[in-house]
Amino acid sequence: MIEMQRKHSRLFSNELPKWALVLHIGLISLFFLIALASLLVLVINPFSEEESGLLVLFGILIILFTWLGRFAYKNLRLYTKLRMSVELRKDGYFYSYKNQMTKEEKTCFLPFADMDSLLIGMDYQQTVEAEYRPSRPNAKIVFYQVAKLLISGKSSEGKDEVLFFTLSDAPTVNEWLSVFEANQVRIYCTDQALSAAIPEKEWIEEVPKYPYAGKLSFEIGKKADQLDKVFFSQEQQLEREQQSKKSRKRGFLLLSILGMFQIFMVRYWFIDWPIDDGTFSDDSGMGSAWLFTLLALAVITFLIKQQGFLDLLKAVAALFLSLTIGLLWVLASVRVPDGFAEAVYFYGILVSVIYVPVALFMIIRRSIRQSYGI
C-alpha cells in the first residue's frame, strides 16, 4: 500500500521527502552489505563439519539481510517508479499517475456534475508502535481504522470511472464530505471494510450500504480490534476458495517431496553420523541437514499462498512422520547405535523450534495482507 503525503487538506502526492529517500537508500545499502559480507566469509573461510553451527548462522544472516534489502528496495520502488497525485478541486476530483520507467501516464478528472455516487467505508492502516517495558523496549504492529472513498461517475472524457482514495483523519474526511454534499453528490455509507475494492461499478452495487446522514458507522483513527469486516464480492469469494484449494494441493505435493528426502536422509545419511549424549555430534553433518530442511520448509510456507495455522501443524507433523518412517526403515535394515532414535527426533525438534516462529510470522503477515485484499 502506497502512503500518500499531504500537501494540504485537498492535495496529496506519493513523492517522498529527500530525507526519507536518503534513509531508504542507506538502509538498503546496509542490508545488502551485511549479506555480501556474510557470503564472503563463507567463500573465503569454508567451515568444517565441527563448525556447522557457524555455517548455519551465516546462512541465516545471508537469507535474512538479503530479504530485508529486497523488501526495502521494492518498497522504495513504489515511490520512485510511480508518481501519483490526488486533488479535490472546486469542480471535481482529479487523479494523475505516471510510471517513471515506462513513461506511461494517466490523468482522470471526475466533475461533480457527472458523478454517480460516493461510497465511504472502513479501511485499515498499519503502523508500528513502540512499547516500553521495564525489562526491554518492544514494538508491535497496530491497525487503525481509516476512511476509504469510492467515487464513481463519468470522467471529463466521457468514460465510466471508479476511483479510490483513503483519508486517515476525521477533520479532512468531514471537509471532503461537505464538499461532495455541497455539490449534490449522492453519498452512501457501509459498515463493511472496503480493503478489497476493485474499480468496477458492479462491485460497488454488491456492497451493503445506506444513505449518508451526517455520521459514519465507524470511528476514524480508532484501533481496529479485528480485521474480519472486509467485504468480498461473490466472484472474489469464489476465487479465494479456488486459490485455497490449489494452494493446499500444492502444499501437500511439496511436503510429500520433502518427506521423501527426509526418509532417505535418515536411511542413508544420518545412519553414518556419530552420536554424543543423545544427539548427533558436532562433527556430523547435522548442521547442513538442519539448514536444508529449514530452508525447504520456509520455501514451502512462502509458496503456499493460503497457508494457515492448521497447515503449519501439518508441516511439523509431516516432518516427524517422515523421520519416523525413515527410522523404522533403518531399524528394519541395519544395526543402529544406541541413542540413534533420540538423535533423529532431536534433529526434528531443532528444526521445528526455528521453523515454527518464522512460519507464524509469514502466515500472520500474509493474513494481514489478504485482509487488505492484496
Explained architecture:
By secondary structure, this protein is α+β, with helices and mostly antiparallel strands. The chain folds into three domains: 1-80; 103-231, no CATH class; 232-374. 49% of the residues lie in helices and 23% in strands. Strands 1-2-3-4-5 form a five-stranded antiparallel sheet. It has a five-stranded mixed sheet with strand order 8-7-6-9-10, with helices on one face.
Could you name the key traits of this structure?
8 helices; 3 domains; membrane; transmembrane; five-stranded mixed β-sheet; transmembrane helix
Please, how many helices?
Answer: 8
Q: What amount of the residues lies in strands? A: 15-25%
Biggest sheet character: 5 strands, antiparallel
| Mean pLDDT rating | 84
Keywords: Membrane, Transmembrane, Transmembrane helix
Transmembrane segments: 21-47, 53-73, 252-271, 287-305, 312-332, 344-364
What is the secondary structure topology, with strand pairs?
Layout: E1 5-8, E2 11-13, H1 18-44, H2 52-80, E3 82-88, E4 92-99, E5 105-111, E6 115-132, E7 137-154, E8 160-167, H3 170-182, E9 187-193, H4 201-206, E10 210-211, H5 234-268, E11 275-276, E12 279-280, H6 286-303, H7 309-333, H8 340-371
Parallel strand pairs: 6-9
Antiparallel strand pairs: 1-2, 2-3, 3-4, 4-5, 6-7, 7-8, 9-10, 11-12
Helix pairs in contact: 1-2, 2-6, 5-6, 5-7, 6-8, 7-8
Keywords: Membrane, Transmembrane, Transmembrane helix
Transmembrane segments: 21-47, 53-73, 252-271, 287-305, 312-332, 344-364
